[in-house]
Amino acid sequence: MVLIRTDTHYSLVFASNYNIDDDTPLEWRCAPQQVLAALAVSLGSMVVGFSSAFTAPALESMNDEDSRLHITDAEASWIGSLMPLSALFGGIIGGPFIENMGRRTTIVLTAIPFISSFLLIYFAQHVAMIMAGRSLTGLGVGIASLALPVYLGETVEARVRGTLGLLPTTIGNMGILISFVAGTYLDWTHLALLGACLPLPFFICTILIPETPTWFINKGKEKQAEASLQWLRGRKANVSEEMSNIVKAHKEAYHEQNQNVLKELFSKRYYLPFVISLGLMFFQQFSGINAVIFYTVTIFKESGSTIDSNLCSIIVGVVNIASTLVATVLIDKLGRKILLYISNALMTLTLLVLGVFFYGKTNGYDLESYGWVPLPAFVIFIFGFAIGAGPIPWLMMGEILPAKVRGTAASIVTAFNWTCTFIVTKTFIDMSKAFGTHSAFMMFALICAIGILFTYKLVPETQGRTLEDIENNLMARRESRMSIKSLKKINSLAYLKPFPSML
Fold first, then answer.
1. CB < 8 Å & 24+ apart, contacts of 469-478
2. How far apart are CA 161 and CA 157, in angstroms?
3. Rounded to an integer, what is the distance from CA 375 to the centroid of its chain?
């Protein structure tokens, strides 16, 4: 397959054999096998997306008259938040899994908790079984969210990593849309049954792809590593140079592992990229996105929208997918920072609109003629999130974290992301009941506004830069700040006057 890059678009065509010509920088080629591998593992993101959005339609149908279970607001809050809480632990145990069992094997095995969890929900006779199912779902989500990007990072060529790297996000959003559409016609039990069936194609497809060459090298299996790389790059591709680079990187990584990586991570040398990654994840989750996704149907019902709440959720899901495709086109044209500015600005404005709307609703104002307002506000909010605050923190985590501490730092940042997700989803309903839904939206709007300042002050632009370039620039930036700080201190001492009157 050949990926042609022009000033306006990418185009993909298949080729049975290819040779890379360094004299034609606008032409990028990749074998179809690695596209198939990326698609196979990205189907896991569809399950993750479906699992994340499951509570939106399911919680509403649980309170239907013919439902065998009825839940309280407190139980709904826990059902919605148990998945991200459990995903936090899934991310932690996923690290040893991908190192000892392999990236592909770990991804394949996530089908077990996904299928089991939805079957547990389907057969649930009391709320505790649903909570147990959502906890099991979270384990699968946490492991998958760590394993999928690692597999893609170690199998996809750098020249097409940007394009193929957005496949999990796009397909994950399709999973959200499937949940919203199916939830319009199915009650929570049949929706859970659909969730149990969804991992099967992902399970079958992932079995057919190889383990990553890097993992084989880490286990001292060079022949298997070369065979895996040859499959990914095509039967006729020359993989000797790439294979030697993987072996070299492996030796350097193991040399680094003899040192205290955790101590290095929290040293002054690496704190800046680490803090930036944590900050981006904080602003991503405290934009309120998961509260919106988890409780979309509930929010539209509370708003008194004149449009059917299930139809609204479907529209939100469609916009989510379309926005991701827009981000794919824009991310290498406008750059990361510009998209983050636009993203946070749009989310701030729409959250303020929603805050004002729900404030009027709570205080008894007649807003019947404005029942259409929540839908466009949600659409613009989702669009804003999907073009920047959604994909960019994950993309930049892999770009700005230094190679020496990347594995450990990525695990901590991922765990932090799920912690923030749990806090937002757990407190949203409670906050809405205690202070009004408008208070939650106003708080999210304030955080998004602060996110603009954070981006301006700290986030670097990484567009078109190699990982080594980005790391060197961040290190130089930190040293430059320290030099300026020291210089200011010296200057203040040099010009210190013994008395205020002496000019």
1. 470/399, 470/400, 471/273, 471/400, 471/402, 471/403, 474/272, 474/273, 474/400, 474/402, 475/269, 475/402, 477/272, 478/268, 478/269, 478/272
2. 6
3. 24
pLDDT tens for each residue of 432-471:
777 877 888 899 999 999 999 999 988 888 766 655 566 6
Rounded to 10 deg, the angle between the 167-185 and 32-53 helix axes is 40
Task: State the pairing for strand pair 10-13/2-5.
Answer: antiparallel
Distance CA 253, CA 255 (A): 5
User: For residue 237, is it left (φ>0), alpha (ψ between -120 and 50) or beta?
Assistant: beta
Cβ burial of 313 (10 Å; 0-12, 13-18, 19+) is: buried
Q: Are strands 27-29 and 10-13 parallel, antiparallel or unpaired?
A: unpaired
pLDDT of residue 493: 36
In 292-421, the DSSP E strands lie at none
Take residue 332 and report the two structure tokens written for it.
């290498």
27-29: strand order across its sheet: 10-13, 2-5, 27-29
* Contacts of residue 498, Cβ cutoff 8 Å, sequence gap at least 6: none
Answering whether pTM is above 0.70, one says yes
pLDDT the model gives residue 320: 78
Cβ-proximal residues to 202 (8 Å cutoff; 6+ apart), any chain: 40, 43, 44, 46, 47, 111
What CA–CA distance (Å, rounded) separates 115 from 198?
A: 8
CB 194 within 8 A of CB 182: yes
Q: Which residues of the chain have pLDDT under 50?
A: 1-28, 482-503
| Residue pair 288/422 in contact by the 8 Å Cβ criterion | no
- What is the residue whose two structure tokens read 């450990």? 408
**What is residue 83's predicted lDDT score, i.e. its pLDDT?**
87
Question: Could you read off the pLDDT of 181-194 as tens digits, one per residue?
Answer: 898 889 999 999 99
CA 37 to CA 492: how far, in whole Å?
A: 59
- How far is residue 49 from each of residues 116, 238, 500, measured CA to CA in Å? 17, 37, 65
Q: What is the pLDDT of residue 467?
A: 54
